[in-house]
Amino acid sequence: MLVILDTNFIIYCITNKIDIQSSISDALDTNFELAIVDATLDELTKLGDKIALKIVKNFIEIKTKKDKIVDDLILDIVDKKTIVATNDLELRKKLKVKGIKTLVVRQKKYIKEI
Fold this sequence. Notes:
The protein is of the alpha/beta class. The protein has six helices and six strands, in the order βααβααβαβαββ. It has a single domain (2-113), classed as 5'-nuclease (Rossmann fold, 3-Layer(aba) Sandwich). It has helices at residues 7-15, 20-27, 38-47, 50-56, 70-77, 89-97; strands spanning 2-5, 33-37, 60-62, 82-85, 101-106, 110-113. The two termini are 15 Å apart.
């Protein structure tokens, strides 16, 4: 299972001191790999968030054409074997229409599959 994390999810987890790897492991009952799209890495670089950049350095980087906003790039590459970790309500609605599961942070302390 591939879990794609968007920028706001990563930043939110760091801000609330949530261990991404272990919290996602607690939320999912399957093996998974963490991934980001290259445009997310660009956003984190522009933000200058050294902690986030250190966390994502071991994630799979999905190359895209970078011709769209990150949300649209994620929507283009997801399939039924993908879960997207995001707190973005609009993105979650679009993913739901496509039948894609999502992970969200609840109560600023744990991750839940929706």
